[in-house]
Amino acid sequence: MRQLQGEPVKRAVTKIMQRYWRLSRGLTLGAQGCVIDRHNRVLLIEHTYRPGWHFPGGGVEKRETVDMALERELWEEAGVRLDPGVPPQLFGIYANHKRYPGDHIALFVVRDWSQPVPPRPNREIAGHQFVDPANLPADIHGPTAARIAEILAGAAKSQVW
Predict the structure, then answer these.
(1) pTM of the model
(2) Contact criterion met (CB below 8 Å) for 88 and 31
(3) What is the count of structural domains for the chain?
């Protein structure tokens, strides 16, 4: 995992806030997108604050729908814009209780999109790449790899992230 200079404090604050949210809220919801390009490659994100490669996404904020959160997170983390009039497909809602009690993740499949400006590394995102599902990075997050197999290879669908 690459680290940008001056990031230890931000990572510590992020971890503290994540723990606070998990404890102070009965239920949390995240939105993640499996963005697939025309070559059937999947977009993966490398964060500065956690190891491995993940789908772009994040938490649903107050006064925000899950669709709005997905759209915001795709733009912030990956420079991806959803095509107007073509909603992403909700693939599943997964319990993420093993790591965070009360947490759920809504996973969308995104095939209709554009990337006007590929993102540059920043305080949150160390990098991004489109990968062939048959050649995933060695350090991909396990649940991310499992979801790719469910979406693109017809693997049995889990209810747990």
Answers:
(1) 0.84
(2) no
(3) 1
| Domain membership of residue 123 as a residue range | 8-153
Edge-first strand listing for the sheet containing 42-47: 53-54, 42-47, 125-131
Give the CATH number for residue 131.
Answer: 3.90.79.10
For residue 141, give the amino acid letter: H
159 falls within a domain: no
Question: Does 107 map to a domain?
Answer: yes
- Asked if residue 158 is part of any domain, the answer here is no
On whether residue 137 sits in a domain, the answer given is yes
pLDDT tens digits, 79-134: 999 999 999 999 999 999 887 788 999 999 999 999 998 889 999 999 999 999 99
Under 8 Å between Cβ of 121 and 127 = yes
pLDDT digits (tens, 9 = 90+) for 15-32: 777 667 666 667 889 999
